[in-house]
Write a structure and sequence with these properties.
This is Solute carrier family 15 member 3. By secondary structure, the protein is mainly α. The chain is 66% helix and 3% strand. The strands form two sheets. The chain has a three-stranded mixed beta sheet with strand order 1-5-4. A two-stranded antiparallel sheet has the order 2-3.
């Protein structure tokens, strides 16, 4: 009979030499990081210019509709994370779930690429509906009717399939990579999360420097074709590295156990009737009942108590995610209405087709401002991992994960305040009728004569906040969860970040109603008559209030953790 560990997981096929385990563990971790970088390159290739793509002449979605679709996509890519984690835990296992998710990713990204050329749009979306003819507007203040959302079912279906695939990879690849280094020491997981985040941003740099430029200045078909190639390469690398991976079979999901315990504690009368009915139905066949493998009821209760303690901490981080996801939605919309300089000067003698597009020079892609966020992460993660953390650890001054998260929320608050101040300044130029028209692709935007580089501080601040809020958040979710619930807790962490994005989308939709701050009936695709500055300041006030609540809840959690340590630690050590 094989030993228990052999039944639980499959060790790598290539780890046979004495020094093999450490070498192959690092190789397996490197393969996971490479897959993560390629998948993130594809993800940012879709999300970075999604507002511009939907706002273009292909679809004629206005700014609020395009921004709302981007927020829905980003939110769903996090909100659906528990689905992929549950499927992996209960039925597929992490390795198979990741492979199937990459296949779904490949199909959905190909569908999105098909909408980037005319024949593909006709096949999947039909013909563009013609605008109904009507009497001329008698007044310049007459509101214009919003156009129908052309290709909305196809685009939303493709984006939601992409979000499901991305969320499944996010929830499973993170834990799968941590499994590869769990034998390398107690600090290996912390370092893996640092370099995982670094790899994510390497993929973002690849995407923003190359794909975003091609999408804005060449065409979206080639740009989205590159994202399809990144997903295909990631799928090949993952399958090629399978022999050196530690893979674990599905062990069952504790979702039903947690729901039963929640029902038992919240609604005891309903639980009593439910348990009485179940016991009567099972008494007729006592011989067929057999003990089920898995955690005992005592372990389920201990895990449930840990979950009840962790959830309030993660829930109070939701407003931070509302601020964070503005970087890829309303920050982009704001940047399109600032002056974007040309990369190549437009000389009269320069008529080369290679350097000119649609009669104008190449514009710096607005999505390149995300590089300010990315560069901060790429620089600070190695500095933090090799210099800052070891120094603070030797001096016994290393802050806890919760303290870092509170600091990250402060930087997020500062970022959205800076964005609001810039928007106030931009609107002053608009009200004085000091605008410049600029063509981005095939669309004309009426921008303030403020340089887009004024957006750099808000991107830098959100990047610093990411170092202190997101990475320690991953570390907190993975380390504080019981081992039998690590996948579920990681899924909940990503799910709550998606809740933040969807709440931001809902707030944009609410404020876009007639009379709201983001209602712009006379703009038709621009935001020059909106009060986005008030929206930013509202987000800042929400972030500030919940940051104070987070500090209070985190303080209670840390005091409780320093108390009965002997009661909480054993539950996290159970397999």
């Amino acid at each position: 009979m094989p030993p228990p560990r052999a039944r639980e997981e499959r060790r790598p096929l290539l780890a046979r030499r004495p020094r093999g385990p450490r070498r192959w563990r690092r190789t397996a971790a490197a393969a996971v990081l490479l897959v993560e970088a390629l998948e993130r390159a594809a993800f940012f290739g879709v999300s970075a210019n999604l507002v511009l793509y939907l706002n273009s002449a292909r679809f004629h979605w206005d700014g609020q509709q395009a921004s709302r679709a981007a927020l829905v996509f980003l939110g769903a890519s996090y909100l659906l994370a528990p689905v992929g984690g549950w499927l992996a835990d209960a039925y597929l296992g992490r390795h198979r779930a990741i492979a199937l998710s990459l296949l779904l990713y490949l199909s959905a990204s190909s569908l999105l690429a098909a909408t980037a050329f005319l024949d593909g749009r006709r096949s999947f979306c039909g013909e563009v509906p013609e605008s109904p003819l009507g009497p001329a507007c008698p007044s310049p203040d007459c509101p214009r009717a919003s156009p129908t959302l052309y290709c909305a079912p196809t685009l939303y279906s493709g984006l939601l399939l992409l979000a499901l695939a991305a969320s499944s990879i996010r929830s499973n690849l993170t834990s799968f990579g941590a499994d590869q280094v769990m034998d390398l020491g107690r600090h290996a997981s912390r370092r893996f999360f640092n370099w995982l985040y670094w790899s994510i941003n390497v993929g973002a740099v690849m995407s923003l420097l190359v794909v975003a430029f091609i999408q804005q200045n060449v065409n979206f078909l080639l740009g989205y074709g590159i994202t399809v190639g990144c997903v295909g390469l990631a799928f090949f690398i993952f399958l090629f590295a399978t022999p050196i991976f530690i893979t674990k079979p599905p062990t069952g999901s504790q979702v039903s156990s947690m729901l039963k315990l929640a029902l038992q504690n919240c609604c005891p009368r309903l639980w009593h009737r439910h348990s009485t009915r179940d016991s009567q139905g099972t008494q007729t066949l006592p011989a067929q009942r057999s003990p089920q493998p898995g955690p005992t009821p005592q372990e389920d209760m201990a895990n449930f108590q840990v979950l009840v303690k962790i959830l309030p901490v993660m829930v109070t981080l939701v407003p931070y995610w509302m601020v964070y996801f503005q970087m890829q939605s309303t920050y982009v919309l704001q940047g399109l209405h600032l002056h974007i300089p040309n990369i190549f000067p437009e000389y009269p003698s320069n008529s080369s087709v290679a350097l000119r597009a649609e009669g104008s020079s190449y514009k710096i892609p607005e999505a390149w401002l995300l590089l300010a966020n990315v560069v901060v992460v790429l620089i600070l993660v190695p500095v933090k991992d090799h210099l800052l953390d070891p120094l603070l650890l030797r001096c016994q001054l290393l802050p806890s994960a919760l303290q870092k998260m509170a600091l990250g929320m402060f930087f997020g608050f500062a970022s959205v305040v800076v964005a609001g101040g810039l928007e106030m300044e931009r609107l002053q130029y608009i009200h004085r009728n000091e605008t410049v028209s600029q063509q981005i692709g095939k669309n004309v935007y009426y921008a303030a004569p403020l340089s887009i580089w004024w957006q750099v501080p808000q991107y830098l601040l959100i990047g610093i906040s990411e170092i202190f809020a997101s990475i320690p958040g991953l570390e907190f979710a993975y380390s504080e969860a019981p081992r039998s619930m690590q996948g579920a807790i990681m899924g909940i962490f990503f799910c709550l970040s998606g809740v933040g994005s969807l709440l931001g989308s809902s707030l944009v939709a609410l404020l876009s109603l007639p009379g709201g701050w983001l209602y712009c009936p006379k703009d038709f695709g621009n935001i020059n008559n909106c009060r986005m500055d008030l929206y930013f300041f509202l987000l800042a006030s929400i972030q500030a209030a919940t940051a104070l609540l987070f500090i209070w809840i985190a303080g209670r959690y840390e005091r409780a953790a320093q108390g009965p340590v002997s009661q909480s630690c054993p539950s996290r050590d159970r397999g």
